[in-house]
Amino acid sequence: MTPAANPAVICTVDVVLLTLVQDTLHAALLRRDKAPFAGALALPGGYIHAQEDADTQASAARVLREKSGLQSPYLEQLATFSGPVRDPRGWSLAVAYCALVPAALLEGGALELVPVSALPPLPFDHRAMVEAAVTRVRNKSQYSSMPVYLCAEPFTLPQLQSVYEAVLGEPLNKVSFRRKMEELGMLEPMPGAMQTGAAHRPAQMYRLKPAFRCSLSTSLRGL
Amino acid sequence: MTPAANPAVICTVDVVLLTLVQDTLHAALLRRDKAPFAGALALPGGYIHAQEDADTQASAARVLREKSGLQSPYLEQLATFSGPVRDPRGWSLAVAYCALVPAALLEGGALELVPVSALPPLPFDHRAMVEAAVTRVRNKSQYSSMPVYLCAEPFTLPQLQSVYEAVLGEPLNKVSFRRKMEELGMLEPMPGAMQTGAAHRPAQMYRLKPAFRCSLSTSLRGL
DNA sequence: ACAATAGTGTCTCTAAGACAATATACG
DNA sequence: CGTATATTGTCTTAGAGACACTATTGT
Q1: Domain A3-124 listed as CATH 3.90.79.10
Q2: With 90 as the cut, is the pLDDT of residue B114 above it?
Q3: I need a labelling partner for A27 at 20 to 30 A (CA). Which of A70, A221, B18, B214 fits?
Q4: Euclidean distance between CA atoms A78 and A107, whole angstroms
Q5: Contact B80 A82 (CB under 8 A)
Q6: CA A177 – C1' D17 distance (Å)?
Q7: Helices and strands (H, E) in chain A, number of each type
């Protein structure tokens, strides 16, 4: 059987871009300007460009760049959604990616931030994609440093803890949290950099160790 | 932009079928009878059939059925691999699935079982797929009941423990293991069924509770 | 000096692992 | 009865959370 013997599959990528606004997870939505579902809010997505994309991860990065201007946030493959009915144009396949960025980077863009707990009706199976992304982030937050990418660098440990608490939806023990961050070994204090200005003891500023920066390259086959 | 504006992407599924032979993880390989790589050992895989497949999970189940006769093992989406060079025919995309079956079900099939630690050179990026599957199984074995699907029912707890130990590659504490199985709550003892015949106390036989049988339907969007 | 939050030391409690005692088959 | 493995009870130990104490800033 040759490729031509099968009707073409519509191949796309969709990006669930999550960020934290006022201690609440928000998904970035975009108003569609083309059919199908023109005018509706949906996840940023687009066709895979076989001419230019090195792989679907590159497609997702390109889509994100074209639609939001963002260059290289945390970007991780989520899952692939497919079937004959999810897209009215026909049998389609969408590789969903999850991106995490600090909210400050989204200022002024065309993206609309909506709390993941109050999503409007979404076209395709975009709701399932958002739910998969939120589930993934919540799960990985329990044992990994994933939420770090929701935090603008540099940050203090109390700030980072509140990010974890927002994602997990529950308060964390301060001592345990610091022990955990210590043993993950991904953070390094910035000598002399303190968060000052408040009427109390200043907090040490931290940043990701260089080895963990820009995970675009390392997360390719991470799981 | 219309779908036709983009060169067609070659859409396939590949299945990493894992089983346990003599306490060692083995992957099932098949000798390819068509180009590319005709004659080489490779993962069972095939084109997505947009006419007949309800989604890529169905494609994977169909490929498995056609190539091995297996009906409904544990089947879970792993990741999607893509790019211009992985397939000599052109820019391609393969949704990789991981299947787990007891070795007894593979008797007499055309599949060749090879220890995952001694894979021959594989075409496409099939080696990366096997590695992703093994990593996934090892990770999930630490906290889930995934290895149960490598065990033919009914089984005894000592048998199941040895399956876990084989997958994880390390001995487990007997008391902790039984506590863990207890709290996972997926197993039920079969009243009166004992593994007899050996010169020692017989072991209770267990099986999966019905709710956890045939995970094909439940693992669709499991992660 | 006081208020407020950062950072650390220590106690307690829970859960995992080690150890060991008991149970039950076959020969 | 002896041997071998299943199953269960108990002790020990490591890690997580609670609590509280010290540190350091601005007012």
Answers
A1: yes
A2: yes
A3: A221
A4: 25
A5: no
A6: 10
A7: 4, 10
- Which residues are B93's β-sheet partners? B11, B82
CATH 3.90.79.10 in chain A, residue ranges: 3-124
Domain B146-212 in this protein, CATH class? mainly alpha
CA atoms within 13 A on the CB side of B98: 27
Residues of chain B with CATH 1.10.10.10: 146-212
Judged by DSSP in three states, A48 sits in: coil
Distance from CA of B222 to the nearest CA of A (A): 8
Question: Does A10 contact chain B (CB < 8 Å)?
Answer: yes
% of chain A residues with pLDDT over 90: 81
A100, A73 contact by CB (below 8 A): yes
Residue of A nearest to B5 (CA): A49
Task: Yes or no: say if B187 and B181 are a contact pair by the CB < 8 Å rule.
Answer: yes
CB contact (8 A) between residue A51 and residue B11: no
Mean of pLDDT values over A4-25: 90
pLDDT in tens, B153-185: 999 999 999 999 999 999 999 999 999 999 999
Return the pLDDT at B215.
Answer: 54
Q: What is the C-alpha separation between A215 and A136, in angstroms, rounded?
A: 17
| Bases on strand C under 7 Å from any protein CB | 3-10, 16-20, 23-27
Query: Pairing relation of β-strands A10-21 and B112-115?
Result: unpaired
Note the CA–C1' distance, A74 to C4, in angstroms.
35
Task: Kindly state the DSSP code that residue A220 receives in the 8-state scheme.
Answer: T
Region of A193 please: left (phi>0), alpha (psi -120 to 50) or beta. beta
Sequence-distant (6+) residues with CB within 8 A of B218 are none
Residue B95 and residue B80 in contact, taking contact as beta carbons nearer than 8 Å: yes
Amino acid B202: pLDDT:
95
